[in-house]
Amino acid sequence: MRCPSESRLRPITDEDVRRLVRLHFDPQHGTPYWLERDRRQGTDALGKVHGLADAVALIGLLDGSDQMHFEEAARRTPLENFVPRSVLAEGGTLWAAQTGGTTGPAKHGTWGSRYWDDILAFSDEFLDLHGVPRGKNWLFVGPMGPHTTGRLVVAFAERRGGMCFSIDLDPRIVKIFGEEGMTAAYDRYVDHIWAQIAEVARSQDIGVLFCTSRLLEMLPERLGTEALAGVEAIVHAGTTLDPETHRQLREDFFPGVPVVGMYGTSTTGISWQKPFEAEDEHRVVYVPCQPHVSLDVVDGQGDDVPFGEEGRVRVWRLTDDALLPGFWERDRARRVRPYGVAAERYPWPWVGDPYSPEFTEGRRVEGVY
């Protein structure tokens, strides 16, 4: 296991919150959407938010009409409304991304150059912790185009000394096939994806496979493991990977090969699976990548549930280019007390087994994602 002696991650501090509030709520140079919401609600975030507890109480999104207003704005208004004017004036790179559109029209978000550099650094940290080899080519099977994941994986591969081959997929058309009962079209599209994977696997030297969790579940039946015999690590994202599938991948289909989960969206940012241990019992547990992203597991009132219990995932993204104050995800998860080899390194609460309740039955709506 290779890992830098010092982590790029650390707990969120009150000073982190104060700095971001000064940036996003500056009357002249702040973020138009959050300034307008602050005026509409009479919050005075700049004067009253002095730390994380104040932020939770005063500027966190409220489940219901408040969050719906934000989501509609993120779908239908210029993206510049969600970026501080001062950040726009700096002229740095901003990657305009879109969500997968599984809950409605796609929402827009940004990934600024500073946050991007931090993501690549802490992603290297986790990939090294899991034993994902460097100097290998990657095969990415997932959404490209406006979705952040594809761009991220290309950067992972190149940063770690390899090339990235890619198979594009469109989660939005798959959603339409599922919702409209277009079974033949869905099946043909999935066949098309696997045919492309097979061609690349036959002709190229692939050391790392990055695949959506749903396609990873299909892999043994659709392709077999012989075609990817040279794969030395598997990374997955998208829907949750259930413990039995995780066990089979690790023990039966790719014994000795790291299987690593990445969790997040194009707007909320990403977090990585903790290093695998027997104590996990093949459940996938994620470390929120603080101080950039915090994942709370809360009850209906927004209070943290006790460790070991299930609640709704609430996301805080605290970056220069984007503020996301307590976004209520559709996902539910367990709140996990840090344990094992990584507990001291990442001492803040973790999340386990996130899943989307509306998709636990009739998973065809999620399709290949």
UniProtKB/TrEMBL annotation:
It holds the Pfam family AMP-binding. This is Long-chain fatty acid--CoA ligase. One of its GO terms (molecular function) is ligase activity. It comes from [Kitasatospora] papulosa. InterPro entries: AMP-dep_synth/lig_dom (IPR000873), ANL_N_sf (IPR042099). Keywords: Ligase. Gene3D superfamilies: N-terminal domain of ligase-like. Residues 196-315 form the AMP-dependent synthetase/ligase domain.
